[in-house]
Amino acid sequence: MLKYSKPLGLVVFVFLFAMCNQKSKNETEKETILKGSLDLAVDETVKQIVDDQVAVFEGTYYDAKIKVKPESEAEVINDLLNQKAKVAITTRDLTVEEKARFDKSKINPRVTPFAHDAIAFISNKSNNDTLIALKTVIDFMQGKTDGKIKGLVFDNPNSSTVRYMKELAKVNEIPKSGVFSFKTNNEVIKFVSENEGMIGVIGINWFYQPTPDMTETINKINVLYVKGLNSNEYYSPTQNDLEIGKYPLARDLFIINCQGYSGLGIGFASFIAGDIGQRIVLKSGLLPYKTPGRKLKIRNEIIKDKE
Asked: By its UniProt entry, which InterPro entries does this protein fall under (predicted)?
């Protein structure tokens, strides 16, 4: 019996190896650019627009399932770098250092911009002054007190809004006093609506597309007009001011695909950067990266209705 054990063991090993390869191949074949499942890490400040895109995409391609995972910017980037997430939505491109880490892993991320977004300053509705200078906020971030601001309110210490404002103010840490942080943009909006003198810092998408339970709360806040560092005029985070490049707190939205193969990440990126996806961006109140075209039918004469 011993003389048959080695050949028999080899046959069993080859059989199991072939079965595992076949299983792996089948699992890969289950996902294409228009079908399969995908976990999508999303910067929490722009979750609303992403939810809209996913809903229409899944409603168009029934075999595609995308699970949205809202996180702080730091968590989203870390998940990408550690390959816990293969596709993500961010408010910035990858840095040189981050791209170098992907190069070491022989991964070539596909980065697709798809919308122009903005950070907004909000205040309590009881505050009749809807104007604020960006320099005033930067001074506050640098620890210089100002009677106009009782406090700044952020969504999360690791969020993209905090990172953005720290870079503008050129500080490594936010002040220990006068600055508050929660976990979500909704919490910021609620806190500002209940406290006079507080300035909230949010992604404007949460104002344009509030969750149903936040509709009444939204009516209790103002979105402030902002004067840039090199401007004498005040501008608001509207599509018009974003398009003419005047609003000083504008930023772009990106989808970063690190799948490394033709999977659902490519299909979804093509969708949101395409005509339908750009129209969804336009309807959301943000500015599409590529303005959707319109077809006009011009007639040489007016056709009157028959009596």
From this structure: PBP_domain, Phosphate_ABC_transporter
Distance CA 274, CA 292 (A): 9
H/E element, 277: helix 275-284
Cα–Cα distance between 205 and 52 in angstroms, integer?
Answer: 11
**CB-based contacts of 132, cutoff 8 Å, min separation 6:** 121, 123, 148, 199, 224, 225, 226, 227
Q: How far apart are the two ends of the chain, measured CA to CA in Å? A: 101
Q: Give the span between the Cα atoms of 159 and 203, in whole angstroms.
A: 10
Q: Is the dihedral of CA 111, 114, 115, 119 positive or negative?
A: negative
Tell me the pTM: 0.84
Can you say whether the dihedral through the CA atoms of 269, 187, 132, 137 is positive or negative? negative
In this structure, the strands spanning 36-43 and 87-90 are: parallel
> Which pair of structure tokens corresponds to residue 228?
């840039």
87, pLDDT greater than 50: yes
Task: Cite the DSSP H helix spans in 31-155.
Answer: 47-60, 73-81, 96-104, 134-141
